[in-house]
Amino acid sequence: MNKKQQQLDQFKSDDSNQPLTTNQGLKVSEDEHSLKVGSRGPTIMEDFHFREKMTHFDHERIPERVVHARGTAAHGVFECYEDASDITKAKFLSEKGKQTPVFVRFSTVAGSRGSAETVRDVRGFATKFYTDEGNYDLVGNNIPVFFIQDAIKFPDFIHSVKPEPHNEIPQAQSAHDTFWDFIANNQESAHMIMWHLSDRAIPRSFRMMEGFGVNTYRFVNAEGQAHFVKFHWKPKLGVHSLVWDEAQKIAGKDPDFHRRDLYDNIEQGNFPEYELGVQLIAQEDEFKFDFDILDPTKIWPEEEVPVRILGKMTLNNNVNNFFAETEQVAFHVGHVVPGIDFSNDPLLQGRLFSYTDTQLIRLGGPNFHELPINRPVCPFHNNQRDGYGRQTINVGPVSYHKNSIQQNTPAPVPPSEGGYEHYQEKVEGMKVRARSESFEDHFSQARMFWLSMTDIEKDHILKAFSFEVGKVARRDIRQQVVEMFANVDVDLATQLAMNVGVQPPKITQPVETTKTSPAVSQFVNPIFSTETKKVAIIVNQKTENLGAIIDTLKAKKVAVELVSDKQQAILNFDVDHTLDTASPVLYDGIIVAGKFDEPKAQNKLNHFIEETYNHYKPLAFLVAPDMQNPITIPGDEGVVQTVESFLEALRIGRHWNRAKAIG
């Protein structure tokens, strides 16, 4: 058990087999009736137990996050692969094998707390490292760039993507007028839109998506040498996504799909793993690239700036209480440790203010650091006092610096003994409201992203564009979007114009670049595996060799659920779901090991088969297929007749060469 788990255990309360008390510890003799004047009379103010119970209930909800409201989280540990003291003096990266407790929160951005999890959206990927030097928060997303370049535009962007204020519609969607009006009139968003409309925005699970720090930071070593740095989380299972039709249907079948997947896999011991990598640029090389390295709408292509892997994070414990941990955790890009510093990235600079301001209103005041989930594992001492939610009982008369009563303690610590020291960067210039000219190229990397995609990925992006812009009611906005993205690719914009009913673009040449970055494609260098994938076996009372089928799948670390027309026992195995309570979109593949005589049940099975086929997922027929459903006869790619061939099809995942598929 790590230090953070030990610390949190101090705050656990097991209420089982305990007497009922008030919050002050007073044992309660009655909890069914309020104190009244007579059995039918009015409740009286004297009833302190009622008032305490009701007041607490009235205040059980804190304001949800304006963004990243819908989230889930887990505890884990980060293990350092090597001594990275050549690039940073951060101690949690200073020793091979050194372990640091972490807490990670995954989230969507646009939706409210009750929204579905498989919507097309950016995903938050925020990590709190409980280091020996204090808490370090790496607050990022699953997409490495952002919509805007300067934080002052963040309220505008969020206002545009949130439900429109006149009717509070739509929830957790970017497919509406105000969002696309913002995009068309703020063209710095072009690169981010290409990522947003790619498969990256509909991940298969939190366990199978990359994380990125987004902003440009600094590493500083003990000698004062600095590098610009960007952070990467690379999932060991690879990067995998849903298809759009599947994502929409999962939102209705299981709006908790991603949090359920994360929770269940941790409970089953399938601990998600991610490697932490960094891209480094020496201070003297700041201006050697054809993009501004401080521009948050730009990536540093991995082919030009390689990723150095520093360690691995394993998520191995679910939270004990969602509210106390997941909902009350407070992340902040300004929570750093010695060896990690900031750049002049204008989006990062604004985040340094905004995160503190946000926690003050969400968590009721300046003492959010005292909540158990936010407390560092190392001691903290200063002259801050009082305020809402104060838990520390400070002793003694001193709460100021400098003082003689306590020999001027708590005292500052020099950098040589671990005190934080900001990197000394020379800054000069006029006081202006302006943006560097080096930030003005909005389309080169958007086109680079497009040129780096495989044909399948390009097809998905076009379909996503057509869906999103097709939802825009105002024709002039649709036309503006077509004109904007002709700068990325004329054929893309022309096809989009046809699909959404506007004129072809006037622009006939995209921005000039032939540069590609294969690392941004999910399909160029995929990681294939059967591990932790979930499979439904369709069974009936005539199913043969069920135990052997299950054993073969589980030997490859595949999760198995049995589905039938009735929730019954079959060959000593309990059926997990019926055809009504399960859905094909919730599985990575289907094995048909039984058919049904009753026509309604067979029709439901045929729906399972068709959905699986249309979403390009593996499908095995261990019994003869229903010839009334000829679209999925064996022989099509990924449609097989043995468990062994199914496992190979499952390892690959999606089978795109299905001409009849409509997913």
Can you walk through the features of this model?
The chain is α/β, with parallel strands linked by helices and 663 residues long. It has three domains: 71-374, Catalase core domain (Catalase HpII,  Chain A, domain 1); 443-520, Catalase, four-helical domain (Hemocyanin, N-terminal domain), CATH 1.20.1370; 534-652, Class I glutamine amidotransferase (GATase) domain (Rossmann fold). It has 16 helices and 18 strands. The strands form three sheets. Strands 1, 2, 3, 4, 5, 6, 7, 8, 9 and 10 form a ten-stranded antiparallel sheet that branches. Strands 15-12-11-16-17-18 form a six-stranded parallel sheet, sandwiched between helices. Strands 13-14 form a two-stranded antiparallel sheet. Strand 16 (589-592), helix 15 and strand 17 form a beta-alpha-beta unit. Helix 3 (154-161) packs antiparallel against helix 4, helix 5 runs parallel beside helix 10 and helix 12 packs antiparallel against helix 13. The relative contact order is 0.10.
The number of strands is 18
Please bin the fraction of helical residues.
25-40%
Distance between the termini: 45 Å
Give the CATH class of the largest domain: Mainly Beta
Instruction: State the CATH architecture of the largest domain.
Output: Beta Barrel
Globular, elongated, flat, extended or rod-shaped: what is the shape? globular
Low-confidence parts = none
What is the H level of CATH, i.e. the homologous superfamily of the largest domain?
Catalase core domain
Radius of gyration from CA coordinates: 28 Å
Structural class: alpha/beta
**Number of helices in the DSSP assignment:** 16
- Estimate what percentage of residues fall within beta strands: 15-25%
Mind summarizing the main beta sheet?
Answer: 10 strands, antiparallel
Number of domains: 3
**CATH fold-type name of the largest domain:** Catalase HpII,  Chain A, domain 1
